[in-house]
Amino acid sequence: MRNTKIGTEYIENRFDFPVLINNVSMVEIKGKWITKINYNKFSDTVLKQLIIKDSFLIGNEIKFIRTKFEMNLDYFVKRFYVSHQAVIKWENTKNSPTKMSWETEKDIRLFIYNKLTEKGFLELYNKLEKKQIIKQFKILN
Asked: Is 2.30.30 the CATH classification of the domain at 38-140?
């Protein structure tokens, strides 16, 4: 039987940015303490926290969001109406704020919420998203 304990505070860096976890189950393997975490569920929890965090998103969080939702650079650019250079610049800020416009950051946060939620918000968000596409189509023609 392996030794187990509850870690009162643990900093997880698996996503390339620090996430503080309180009261995490840990198991000792070959003399090292390892967290007992379902990383699929944990990544969803991290995404939920990114939606509501008080500070601006950082570059590594943008990269995490993009990769978690399996969005290549081209898809991300088209989805959020930004340039390739902007996304590369944001991701290169690593652990510093991206300095993107609040409108874009808000859209990214609402996108995450939309993907993780099955409430009435989903229908409204999709309608608003389609309006933006239609609006852009009209502008281009």
From this structure: no
